[in-house]
């Protein structure tokens, strides 16, 4: 087994990177896959979201962060801590196993008998506000050494990396360990511009990675709702057309990989604006079910695209 390592990236904030990272982690874990989420964004929203979702509060996170057991610890003193911790309990240092109980999606359950709740485990390397001060060029080597020493590629089916909204050392570090990337985006004027900037950066990065890094696709997030059958409100149409033209005519060539929109897209919903947006939420599945089903469809697409790329090798 060798993990599929997926960076979730866009140089814009608020486009759904964290939403995709966390929900994809939940859906893959719901399928009994071994999942590790690495929160490399100094805003550490994935960490906040998942600790809250699984434990209802951030107490455990505070404890870990006080002991330096976040990604900052990994970058600071990976060597000594790694060896010590491996010896005492066999656990991998800096990785917290979150045990969550998630509601089954009724419309996806095989039988009516199926349990209404399912226990899943999501492993996370928690993020940290202090990440910003610590990063230099040796970080990629440290992360690489950490993956190697702890056999992470054999340990997991999927490793997801929630990236910061900037192109800098942190994103470079994430991509240096990734095989794939997913780009969540809105459909507006700035998003299309943002993706062309991202394409240029990826082009440069890919040269040094010799084409190892493949696009899984672009996922449209937080769209205006519409009655239109194709789900695209009038306000988004031109931007969608322009973006897709850009992907086909320019970006594919730049990044040496087909950058296709996913069929599944996510519309804006007020319910999610004010709370952490895990779409499998126990207390209100009736209002979330549609989104939970969509996230499951999205997960199917991700798995299928990974399969196609891996088979073509
Ligand atoms: N379907 C939705 N409709 C509206 N807001 C959403 C939806 N899903 C998630 N959100 C909210 O959108 C905000 C931005 O998303 P987020 O994933 O944090 O973006 P990023 O990580 O790219 O900065 C979050 O506060 C999240 O709670
Ligand atoms: Mg985020």
Oligomer: single chain
Q: What structural class do you assign from the helix and strand content?
A: alpha/beta
CATH class: Alpha Beta
Helix count, per DSSP? 12
DSSP strand (E) fraction?
5-15%
In total, the number of domains comes to 1
| Architecture per CATH nomenclature, i.e. the level-2 architecture | 3-Layer(aba) Sandwich
**Residue share in helices?**
40-55%
The CATH homologous superfamily: P-loop containing nucleotide triphosphate hydrolases
Radius of gyration, Cα only, in angstroms? 19 Å
- Strand-and-helix sequence, N→C? EHEHHHEEHHHEHEHEHHH
How far apart are the termini? Answer: 16 Å
- The average pLDDT score comes to 89
What is the approximate shape? globular
Low-confidence parts, pLDDT < 50 over ≥5 residues?
A: none
Major beta sheet, strand line-up: 3-4-2-5-1-6-7
Would you tell me which CATH topology applies?
Rossmann fold
